[in-house]
């Protein structure tokens, strides 16, 4: 029963905080529980992140598949300093996301803080939710920084 209450609370928080992804995910998981399909929860937990990353990669690659980005566009980007900064930024982001994935594998309970922090960022800082993986990556970097400073 506690799981259902938490999911309903996350639905409400997602709606109030303008985070349809959190609200939708909580709704789907609540439906899974209410129709007694809990046996699928371990599979969702194990493969959900991979499927999410797959669909995220699909959305990023669509401009290439649809022909909106041409090889000459790629060459043009790589000859400008904003293009090089974007390349470095993309590489740094994927590295940070990898550290976040490691953190989530080691300590899956950290997702509670990530979700609550994302909601705070959406509601009070007018932020845009980019997902728990990037939030976990930033958390992993902050954790290393605090360990380095604090000993």
Automatic annotation (TrEMBL):
<feature type="transmembrane region" description="Helical">
    <location>
        <begin position="81"/>
        <end position="98"/>
    </location>
</feature>
<comment type="similarity">
    <text>Belongs to the UPF0756 family.</text>
</comment>
<dbReference type="Pfam" id="PF04284">
    <property type="entry name" value="DUF441"/>
</dbReference>
<feature type="transmembrane region" description="Helical">
    <location>
        <begin position="51"/>
        <end position="69"/>
    </location>
</feature>
<feature type="transmembrane region" description="Helical">
    <location>
        <begin position="110"/>
        <end position="127"/>
    </location>
</feature>
<feature type="transmembrane region" description="Helical">
    <location>
        <begin position="6"/>
        <end position="31"/>
    </location>
</feature>
<keyword id="KW-1133">Transmembrane helix</keyword>
<dbReference type="InterPro" id="IPR007382">
    <property type="entry name" value="UPF0756_TM"/>
</dbReference>
<keyword id="KW-1003">Cell membrane</keyword>
<protein>
    <recommendedName>
        <fullName>UPF0756 membrane protein DFP97_102419</fullName>
    </recommendedName>
</protein>
<keyword id="KW-0472">Membrane</keyword>
<dbReference type="GO" id="GO:0005886">
    <property type="term" value="C:plasma membrane"/>
</dbReference>
<keyword id="KW-0812">Transmembrane</keyword>
């Amino acid at each position: 029963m506690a799981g259902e209450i938490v999911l309903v609370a996350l639905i409400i928080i997602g709606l109030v905080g303008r985070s349809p992804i959190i609200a939708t995910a909580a709704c789907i998981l609540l439906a899974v529980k209410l129709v007694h399909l809990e046996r699928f929860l371990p599979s969702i937990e194990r493969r959900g992140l991979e499927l999410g990353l797959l669909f995220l990669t699909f959305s990023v690659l669509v401009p290439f598949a649809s022909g909106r980005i041409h090889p000459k566009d790629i060459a043009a980007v790589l000859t400008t300093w904003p293009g090089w900064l974007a390349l470095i930024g993309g590489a740094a982001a994927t590295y940070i996301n990898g550290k976040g994935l490691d953190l989530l594998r080691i300590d899956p309970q950290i997702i509670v803080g990530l979700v609550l922090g994302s909601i705070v960022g959406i509601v009070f800082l007018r932020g845009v939710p980019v997902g728990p993986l990037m939030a976990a990556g930033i958390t992993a970097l902050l954790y290393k920084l605090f360990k380095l400073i604090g000993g």
